[in-house]
Amino acid sequence: MILDGKKTAELITKKVGEEVQTIPEKITLALILVGHNPASEVYVNSKMKACDAVGICVRDFFLEENATQKELLSIIDSCNKDSNVHGILVQMPLPSHIDENIVINAISPEKDVDGLTIINQGKLMAGLDTIAPATPKGVITLLKKHYIDIVGKNVVVIGRSILVGKPLALLFLKNNATVTIAHSRTTNLKELTKRADILAVAVGKPNFITADMVKKDAVVVDIGINRVEGKLIGDVKFNEVSEIASYISPVPKGVGPMTIASLLENILECYHIQKRNRE
């Protein structure tokens, strides 16, 4: 069966929009883009459209490629201090002359809609409630909305980035799964993947996972987005693996829409955290 991210995301988005309508304040996201990376521009446009659709205001800061780190930090500082800004998102990657770690950790944790500050990562590591990165959060939501049991399951996450792999493994742990993290240097990868009840793949290599690497009736979540000959394809060889898996997420219309929907949830969550902190 297909893990329909598009349909699930639409339901979440509708719910967020309904809640936004009940809030008298204008919920506002500061969205910062440095340079003209084509993929980043596409992602930023889709985030702006999604916010507009649910009534979240976007204050955009589009900087040229040669913008300094000092300029960027100054914008973040003013947004941190502005009580009318409820979320701050800096689109990655940044140009090489800017230190991403310094920039991310300049964001106030309560306005960190991407869940990437060391504070929010630490809370996630400790199993505390916090803002979780949107893609991993979207994966867990997608599974739960399809009534897939995570508790006690053998989960293999391929990929160890701070944006997807590591936080996703922690969210699976929080949901009482048994988790293995694999990556580009893992030996005997096929032996690991064949044991997985749930296989989550985020390696950025088209058609990396083939049918012979997947256990019969496993749940396969394809987080990869690769452009090959003008088409978007995932990290999983869909036609092959869909014959074996009990559930599989497609690319596109799988995890991608869930990421955007989860981001909208995170913006709303940041607003509520700040409101509670003011009371």
What does this structure look like?
With 279 residues, the chain is of the alpha/beta class. It folds into two domains: 19-108, Leucine Dehydrogenase, chain A, domain 1 (Rossmann fold); 134-256, 3-Layer(aba) Sandwich (Rossmann fold). The protein is 41% helix and 16% strand. The protein has helices at 5-21, 38-54, 69-81, 100-104, 118-125, 134-145, 165-174, 189-193, 238-241, 255-278; strands at 28-34, 57-63, 87-90, 154-158, 178-182, 198-201, 219-222, 226-228, 231-233, 247-248. The strands form three sheets. A five-stranded parallel beta sheet has the order 5-4-6-7-10. A three-stranded parallel beta sheet has the order 2-1-3, with helices on both faces. Helix 6 (134-145) crosses helix 7 (165-174). The chain is globular, with a radius of gyration of 19 Å.
Strand order of the largest sheet: 5-4-6-7-10
Overall geometry? globular
Low-confidence stretches: none
CATH superfamily of the largest domain: NAD(P)-binding Rossmann-like Domain
CATH class descriptor name of the largest domain: Alpha Beta
Beta strands, count: 10
Helix share, percent: 40-55%
H/I helix tally: 10
**Oligomeric form:** single chain
SSE order, one letter for each helix or strand: HEHEHEHHHEHEHEEEEHEH
CATH architecture of the largest domain: 3-Layer(aba) Sandwich
Strand content: 15-25%
Q: What is the fold's blueprint, element by element?
A:
Blueprint: H1 5-21, E1 28-34, H2 38-54, E2 57-63, H3 69-81, E3 87-90, H4 100-104, H5 118-125, H6 134-145, E4 154-158, H7 165-174, E5 178-182, H8 189-193, E6 198-201, E7 219-222, E8 226-228, E9 231-233, H9 238-241, E10 247-248, H10 255-278
Parallel strand pairs: 1-2, 1-3, 4-5, 4-6, 6-7, 7-10
Antiparallel strand pairs: 8-9
Helix pairs in contact: 1-10, 2-10, 6-7, 6-10
